Amino acid sequence: MQEFSGLSLQGVLDTLGVIVPLIAALVIGTLIFQYFLYKILNNVVKTSYALPYTLLAPAIIAILLFTMYPLLYNVLLAFSGLTSKTFNCYSPVATGVCKLDHLYGFDYAAKNFTDVFFRVKDGEILGWGRLLRTADSTFPVLLGRTIVWTGINVVFHFFIGLALALIMNQKIRFKGIYRSFIIIPWAIPGIIVALTWKQEFHAQYGFVNNLIEALGGQGISWLRDPIPAFAAVTFVNIWLGVPFYMVMLLGGLQSISPDYYEAAQMDGANSWQRFRAITIPLLRPILIPAITLDVIWTFNKADLIVAMTGGGPQESTNILVTAIYNAAFGSAATFELGFASAFSIIVFFILFFFAVIWITTSGGLKEIYER
Amino acid sequence: MKYGKFMFLMVVALLALGVGSVMAQDAVAPQALVIWSNDGDANNVVLQEQFAKWAEAVSPGSTLEIVQKETEVERTDLQAAALAGSGLPDMVLGPNDPIGVYVDSGIVQPLDELFDISQYPFNIGAAQVGGETFGVPTNAGNHLMLMVNKSLVPTVPDTWEELVAAAKAVTEANPEVQGFAYNLNETFWFLPFVHGFGGSVYDADGNMVLDSQPWVDAFQFVQDLKFKDQAVPEECDYNCANDLFKAGSVAMIINGDWAIGEYLDTEKSPALGPDNLVLAPWPKLPNGERPKPFTAGKFISIPVGVEGEKLAAVQSFVTWLTTDPDAVTAYALGTSRLPAIAAVTVDAAANPILAESAAALTTGVGMPADASLRCMWDSVKPNLEGVMSNSMTPADAAAESQIAADDCLAG
Amino acid sequence: MSVLTQPASLPPARKIDRGRNWPQIRMYAGAAVAALGLVLTVVDQMNIGWIIILGWLGLLVWKQWHAILAFYSVISIYPVLRVISVSLRPGSGLLSRDLAIIPTGATIESYVKIFTEETFLHWVWNTLSITLAVSAVGVVVAATGAYAFSRWRFPGRRPGLIFLLTTQMIPAGMMIIPIYVIVAQLGLTDNIIGLMLAYISTAVPFSIWILKGYYDTIPPDLEEAAMVDGCNRMEAFWRIILPLSTPALSIVFLFNFLAAWSEFLVAKVVLKSPTVWTWSLGLNDLIGTFNTDWGKYAAGSVFVTIPVLLLFTWQSKYLISGLTLGGVKS
Question: Which residues in chain A touch residue C133, judged by CB atoms under 8 angstroms apart?
């Protein structure tokens, strides 16, 4: 069989042979399941919401299976005493005498969760605990950096995105071309973005310094020093996030009826007043969910930082989620999964509470769930 | 065991290459074996070829799947697979330092009963924990050494002073070419300097001591090398040094024996090849000592759960690969690395590069398989980064490394 | 400040004629600035930095909005051009300080190599088949789920929507070990089915949000009218809502496609053997510890980015209208 670049006709057919029956089985299975679910809900449970529950069931089951099960597994690990030294107690295959008298318990959880915050010796709190190896890798420092990171990113995403959307919303030529160019960062696969920018911030061979030097400036060791490194990853994440806002806001702006502006103009409102009184309030239902999602995504943005700097230099570009990654899998990791899981659960709940407070105080999501 | 001290008696003699066949072994039922390897592509090809020879003679029909994994990934994946209880390979090929972790976790088998460990006198200590052996060496080495592109630097520098001067001369002759580069911020590349200044990781009582004078001296030395002598680039990691060296854009680097094969291949390294590559021990420090790299080798460990006929096949293959003189010679020449058994020595005249590598190896110190070593690697790294960005003094870096290591050791 | 409130559809505010022709004056001033740049370039040893900077300033004077958009477009596109540039460099010049987009000695060697020396096409095919299946199934699952959220106020609706949001809050790092263990225990290692199910479930929450937002903008009267005509609820959904939701459905398809096409972390955990690798694993391997071939990597990157870019451009008309997280009151 003819083969090119590792792919032959047979290979293509083989993959199709796996995927097509799979999809078919998935679809048919889901439909049968939905049919019976509907019958049960309608005839046995006798709820008037049988149809919406049936429609939602596949989505909810998929999400529960692949996000809730891992989440619960993490909770289980956080209640375990799993370290590399007690590993054989938890692994079904590892050999050696298990030194633990029980595998899961609140005593382990207490230790795991305390270790995230404090350094404890003989029941005495000696200070903030180190999550990684440097003195700065304590919980409050990482939390503070995460908030700064999220704040800077969201603010820049918003203002640059809004500015571009406002300009693009005018009668202007080449709009389509500009739009295609500006959304490009969004369309490039994330891993390529991270590794490309890592190269481009290289002190000697990256275009950033070459450009600065060509314009007569002094190059900066971007990824060698803590503050430039943080600036570099922040810049890249801003660059990545602007297109999403621009597109969202442009969509919002275009759906505002011109009548509002004409009426306001009649009343003698200047353009700033019209912007304040019409544009912002009408964009609000779009802005609040967009900002909410952006805050969550930015807070959780581990892949870019891990690929660009690995959290270095001197662990200075770590935010909470990259610290979890490095504590569990980085070179600093000693497979203390009980601790790493406790850490990730705390981070999850911090974000959860931030989000809930933001959603309730801004009230912006009412538009979505009360419609 | 803290230090598996082993000395290399590199008897440089002519090797009698007999037209031998695979030594007589009992036939083994065909098996589909899986090995995880942290070796490069070219070396894995050699491994596959060797396996084919073994299979042909001893176990026709056996196959070997080589799964390439970076060192850290290999370790995490092995632990994750053991936690899940499935997906473990039949062999793991890697450096010796994760072996301590594997032993702590109870996921590799003791090998004293399966192999005649007296066959590997040089470096078997690097795979022993608590008096038991958990890895079989496929080679001796894994040592860092000075690598020079002869076309750019004709005389190999013997002291750091000479190296700095030679590096400057290179850049003066051609501003586009750097004199010297290495993986600046990695502890493995830094530790030899500590050894050179008379320090070590553990004190006489076996405690980890990182804030001693030799550590401060070593931090001071690498900082001066960068900021006073300006002998290294602003920013350089492994890939940077490696890529530049292969392309002829840097004249001298520090790298390990795993890279030699690639540097000898002119297709991958257009600027190097056998004509231009020279290997040498590290240059001498001002105190007259050479920095001493950690040495061990690459070891094959056998995860738990490999048993019965599969274990017999693994045992037969690994025994053959590491002790059959022809197999050891073929593997050593194919990977450009040094054999780990006394019975096989390298023909210096026919393989000058291997002889140079052997000479560099004798300047090293043995690396233990102790799990606590991880705490040292990880604790030093961020402080080394601080020293190399001139934002930390050597004394602070040493003191901070100690604090971080203590914190790590306490768990 | 007209930019703040000047939608395209609004007739331009009448300008008070002050007896001067501002657009023309600005055009000449801009041209003068650009000409100065040209002169300085020639004087300063053909340093094209001058013409670029002053040329742009000239544009800023003449048409400020075009200048800003052009500037931002360059910021967006330049790194991409750099990747293309690296892919065209000859083998020896990969680490180079050259700023030119078309490097000296440009060659397509890397493009040939990625296909001949690597099983690149195989990786792309693996990814494509997974991605298309995930996107299609994901859209179907989300489309019906979102309809439920949009049209019924059932008990558990509000917690359900918040729950969807919550799934976005789980740190990716904490999923790796559990997914590894699940995949190994279910025997799904190297199996694309496990990967597809994981992708579908991670893509669904955001998809439901977008689709629900869009359905909300469609008046329920339309379905009610259809139901009066004898359709049942699902027929009305199929015949009325889905066709009207093309923009949002395209966007959801696009997002699912992009997410599955470029996913790396989970794929790395699930797919161990090179024969089932997706391109992100394959390309990552090209610049890993074992081998650093930036040329091949860049060539591969260009290839895998093209389909996404085409999809984005093709659907960009829907991008603006289909991405509705919350409807604007109209």
Answer: 19, 22-23
Is there a domain that residue C14 lies in? no
Tell whether B93 and B164 lie within a shared domain: no
DSSP A171-190: S-TTHHHHHHHHTHHHHS-H
Instruction: Tell me if chain C has a CB within 8 Å of the CB of B237.
Output: no
Closest of A138, A98, A159 to residue A294, by C-alpha: A159
- Predicted local distance difference test score (pLDDT) of residue B47: 96
C 283-312 → B contacts, CB under 8 A: 285, 287-292, 294
CATH code assigned at A190:
1.10.3720.10
| Chain B hits for A314, Cβ within 8 Å | 382-383, 385-386, 389, 391
Q: What is the CATH number of the domain that holds B182?
A: 3.40.190.10
CA atoms within 13 A on the CB side of B266: 4
pLDDT at B8 over 50: no
- Contact yes or no for B266/B104 (Cβ under 8 A): no
* Residue C173 touches chain B, beta carbons under 8 Å: no
pLDDT for position C197 = 83
**Distant-in-sequence, close-in-space partners of C273: CB < 8 Å, separation ≥ 6:** B65, B67, C190
What pLDDT does residue B13 have?
35
Out of C104, C133, C157, a domain closes at C104
pLDDT band for position B10 (cuts 50, 70, 90): very low
Domain at C263, CATH number: 1.10.3720.10
A10 in the same domain as A149: no
Range of the structural domain that residue A152 is part of: 139-333
pLDDT at A369: 58
What was the pLDDT predicted at A313?
92
Residue B293 has pLDDT above 50, yes or no: yes
Asked if C271 contacts C190 with a C-beta cutoff of 8 angstroms, the reply is yes
Local structure of residue B296 (DSSP, 8 states): B
What is the average pLDDT score of chain B? 89
Res A367 pLDDT > 70: no
**Hey, are the CB atoms on C308 and A293 less than 8 Å from each other?**
no
> Tokens 């440009």 identify what position?
C106
Residue A133: pLDDT over 90: no
Asked if B84 lies within 8 A of C184 by C-beta distance, the reply is yes
Cβ within 8 Å, pair B382-A204? no
Residues in A closer than 8 angstroms to C287, CB to CB, are 195
Whether the complex's predicted ipTM surpasses the cut of 0.95: no
At position B239, the amino acid (one-letter code) is: N
Residue after which a domain boundary falls, among A17, A49, A64: A64
Query: Is residue A356 domain-resident?
Result: no
Domain range spanning residue C138? 114-322
Instruction: From C153, C147, C151, select the one nearest C242 (Cα to Cα).
Output: C147
Higher pLDDT, B329 or A69: B329
**Total beta-carbon pairs less than 8 A apart between chain A and chain C:** 375
* Interface residue ranges in chain B relative to chain A, Cβ cutoff 8 Å: 72, 76, 79, 82-83, 85, 88, 101, 104-107, 109, 185, 233-235, 240, 304-305, 371, 374, 377-379, 381-383, 385-386, 388-389, 391, 400, 403-404, 407-408, 410-411
Pick from C114, C127, C169 the residue to mutate for testing the A interface (most A CBs within 10 Å): C169
- Pair (C76, C195) in one structural domain: no
Contacts of B239 in chain C (CB under 8 A): 287, 292
| Domain range enclosing B89 | 32-141+296-366
Q: What is the pTM of this model?
A: 0.91
Q: Which of residues 215-274 of A touch B (CB under 8 A)?
A: 221, 223-226
Taking the C-alpha atoms of residue C209 and residue A197, their distance in angstroms, rounded to an integer, is 31
Contact residues on chain C for A50, CB-CB shorter than 8 A: none
- A139-186 confidence digits (pLDDT tens): 999 999 999 999 999 999 999 999 999 999 988 888 888 988 999 999
Q: Are residues B76 and B53 in the same domain?
A: yes
A:25-84 residues touching chain C, CB 8 A cutoff:
26-27, 49, 51-53, 55-56, 58-60, 62-63, 65-67, 69-71, 73-74, 77
- Name residues of chain C where pLDDT drops below 70: 1-20, 91-95, 289-291, 324-330
Six-digit token string for B22: 């695979």
Is residue B87, in this structure, part of any structural domain at all?
yes
Measuring CA to CA, how many Å separate C127 from each of A14, A308, B333? 14, 24, 39
